[in-house]
């Protein structure tokens, strides 16, 4: 997909154009105090799928959702006293909190990679804040670099790497920190999931206790347990369902549900977690999944399907 990438200024005309793109499923890069983010409407499955496509990410890593203030965050997650302490000390700023996703939060399952937790942050950059204000809803945004490349800290970095793939770049100056946000998991004991722009010592002082490491305790190294795993057995590369199975189709291979009947990989990515959850909730003996081509977004889809097939949980743990 090739689009003309508009360079927008953070004035009323530019901001309204940027918000218009987000509302119509477009992608808009914007500066935060850490790095430039590649933004999409967090409730729009297809727009979020396009983020992964533009980045060429081989995996559906979950994305951080950006909101304008505390209220915006509290509407999306199950809040806690520690979250309150950290948010009032460090927001807006380079701290991301991972909390249980609230029921009925308007967040595409592709944002969380099908997980039951959500990463949220309130950025502290006038460009990001003006865009969030103007759009009026949560924006999902990974760093605006192609997968495997350095995170961008200037609008020019984004233009060099992503022009032609995204609708707009909000050029509101450089990022001051140049280092991604620190990510703290609060869904069990407070845990440092990624070091970043806010030093962990400062966070520990605010909590009054040390942070656990990403690999400590129940969370296996490599964040194994943080992958979405269905309870049903998955049978991949199936061309037809067997007795007792539910079938997830793709392209010419039909099913009880289909990822995309015309073989569109962006649509397939957009539907993946929603359909897996739906089929998993039926009492099928197994879920048969049609073959998905190993190209473009198909790689990330297959990566996630293979993990889901091999990391089946008897009891969903998160
Ligand atoms: O500073 C930043 O955080 C920048 C700006 C744009 O906000 N964003 C950023 O996003 O660095 P990204 O996608 O490059 O990194 C997000 C990290 C990933 O490593 C992802 O695995 C983790 O956040 N993450 C997101 N949701 C998560 C969740 N529910 N549980 C655990 N980790 C999560
Ligand atoms: Mg990144």
* Relative helix content: 25-40%
- Helix and strand string, N-terminal first? EHEEHEHHEEHEHEEEHEEEEHEH
Average of the residue pLDDT scores: 92
The low-confidence parts are 218-225, 313-318
* E-strand count: 15
Bound molecules: threonylcarbamoyladenylate, magnesium ion
Question: What is the rounded distance between the termini?
Answer: 35 Å
Round the Cα radius of gyration to an integer and report it.
Answer: 20 Å
Largest sheet: 11 strands, mixed
Structural class: alpha/beta
**Gross morphology:** globular
Counting DSSP H or I runs of 4 or more residues, the number of helices is: 9
Fraction in beta strands: 15-25%
**For the largest beta sheet, what order do the strands appear in spatially?**
1-8-2-3-7-4-6-5-9-10-11
3D structure, described in words:
The chain is an alpha/beta fold and 318 residues long. The chain has helices spanning 12-23, 45-55, 70-74, 81-90, 126-135, 155-162, 200-207, 265-281, 297-310; strands at residues 6-8, 28-31, 36-41, 64-66, 95-100, 117-121, 139-140, 168-170, 182-185, 191-194, 212-213, 233-235, 245-249, 257-258, 286-289. β10 (191-194), α7 and β11 form a beta-alpha-beta unit. The model is unreliable at 218-225 and 313-318 (pLDDT under 50). The chain binds threonylcarbamoyladenylate and magnesium ion. Magnesium ion binds next to loops.
């Amino acid at each position: 997909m090739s689009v003309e990438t508009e360079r927008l200024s953070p004035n009323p005309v530019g901001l309204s154009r940027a918000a218009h793109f987000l509302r119509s499923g477009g992608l808009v890069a914007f500066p935060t105090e850490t790095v430039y983010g590649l933004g999409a409407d967090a409730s729009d499955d297809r727009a979020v799928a396009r983020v992964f496509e533009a980045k060429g990410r081989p995996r559906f890593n979950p994305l951080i959702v950006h909101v304008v203030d505390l209220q915006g965050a509290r509407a999306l997650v199950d809040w806690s006293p520690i979250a309150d302490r950290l948010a009032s000390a460090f927001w807006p700023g380079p701290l991301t909190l991972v909390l249980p996703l609230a029921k009925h939060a308007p967040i595409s399952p592709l944002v969380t990679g099908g997980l039951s937790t959500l990463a949220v942050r309130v950025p502290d950059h006038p460009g990001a804040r003006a865009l969030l204000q103007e759009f009026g809803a949560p924006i999902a945004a990974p760093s605006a670099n192609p997968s495997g490349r350095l995170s961008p800290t200037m609008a020019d970095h984004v233009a060099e790497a992503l022009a032609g793939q995204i609708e707009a770049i909000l050029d509101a100056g450089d990022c001051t920190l140049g280092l991604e946000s620190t990510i703290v998991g609060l869904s069990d004991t407070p845990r440092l999931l990624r070091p970043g722009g806010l030093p962990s010592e400062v966070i520990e002082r605010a909590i009054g206790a040390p942070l656990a490491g990403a690999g400590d305790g129940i969370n296996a190294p490599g964040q194994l347990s943080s992958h979405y795993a269905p309870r049903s057995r998955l049978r991949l590369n199936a061309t037809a369902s067997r007795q007792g199975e539910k079938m997830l189709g793709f392209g010419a291979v039909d099913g009880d549900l289909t990822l995309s009947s015309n073989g569109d990989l962006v649509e397939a990515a957009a539907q993946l977690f929603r359909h897996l959850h739906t089929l998993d909730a039926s009492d099928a003996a197994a879920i048969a999944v049609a073959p998905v081509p190993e190209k473009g977004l198909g790689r990330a889809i297959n990566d996630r399907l293979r993990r889901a097939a091999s990391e089946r949980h008897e009891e969903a743990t998160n």
